[in-house]
Queue: 2 jobs
Job 1
Amino acid sequence: MSATLVEYDASYLEPLVRLWREAFEFGVGVTDPHPLSEQREYFLSQVLPANQVTLALLDSRLVGFMAASRESVCQLHVQVGFHRQGIGSALLGLAKERSSGSLWLYTFTRNVRACAFYEKHGFVVVERGFEPNWKLDDVKYSWSAQTRGGI
């Protein structure tokens, strides 16, 4: 069964924030000390206005989401337990289709599942750094339709 991709609907705000928190903690292996209310406010004030948010639904249940612009992928998360079912690939494919021909994104180096996922989809490391808020090493990835064999 494949997920249906739909544009953001505010009725999914609470499940989205919970999915985001759970997927982040699972992928990065940390416990986020911030209240969910702060994450909800960050999503509404920072993520949503600057990105097109797409939801991945299975029978109206939220199983993933992506926040992306034509230049970058800000967030891409799949519900824990639903990995390796093509949900993230479908979301990332949509980001590539909507892009201006290239995309960049950041992830934490300790999120080895995410790093392998992006590399499998043609992204290459262009920069390594340190994210001061989380005090974790991160990596910047880039993808180009011209150098990576298209969409």
Job 2
Amino acid sequence: MYISDFRYHRPQTLAEAVALLETSRDGVLLAGGTDLLVDLKQGKRFHEDVISLTRIEELHSIELHGDSLVIGAAVTHNQLIHSPLIRQSCFAISEAAATIGTEQIRNTATVGGNLCTAASCADTAPILIALEARVELIGGRGRRTLALANLFVDHRRTALEKCEILSRIIVPVPPAGTGAAFEKFGLRQAANISVASVAVMVRVVDQRCERASFVMGAVAPTPRISGKAAGLVEGRPVSQVSEGSELLERVARAVADDAAPLDDIRGSAAFRREVTATLARRAFEKALSRAVTGVAEGQAGR
């Protein structure tokens, strides 16, 4: 199938891109294009104006600003995997990105596109939410930031206003004693779509779990935070939530109970809950081990 005719724009600044969106009747942004171009070819979407973000330099950078890691929205998944800054300060982001698609897709698909598509199975969202990331949005009324968790309204719906662009993801660098991990289950080894995923962040101070975050993917219309599981962990001595403990099993079950899965072609709701419990236990054990041993995030995957 051929793509319908459209006007192709390549602005060099975010201000130019926003102006194009404001003057176009149905303008759409193009970053990696791994979703948009497929939809255009299949006739699922039609746009008179396609606005490429490839020439906007600030969207392609990964930088450390004070105590925060700032990731441009047009950074590709392979850049997330191989960036020394990310591997040293937030290795679990690289860990999650490495599970996405194929090598060809990871070379092209962008983190901003993965988030703005807002598919329930988007694999970068759970780990970034667990790490308390915020996003910067720019539009005709200027810039604003919001917690990444609040970006997702429903499956494939975001809080982006008309003519707004997601420009950066801002991730606080985890302090010492913090561990994070991402676990995912799909139906095949390569290029798999998540049946369920779980990201965990835990912070340990004086051998006690001071803070914890559990975020699920693909088991609800949007990434889902398990407050019940965090409540079971926070304030507990590490020894009480160690591998094989009764409390750890309760934590894993609490994550699964907070899920809201549906039956679909990749698995039943009951199956997804069981998988979610297993992933939660694995991710928590890995995150806790990283926090307790003090292994630098950049060494966690070695």
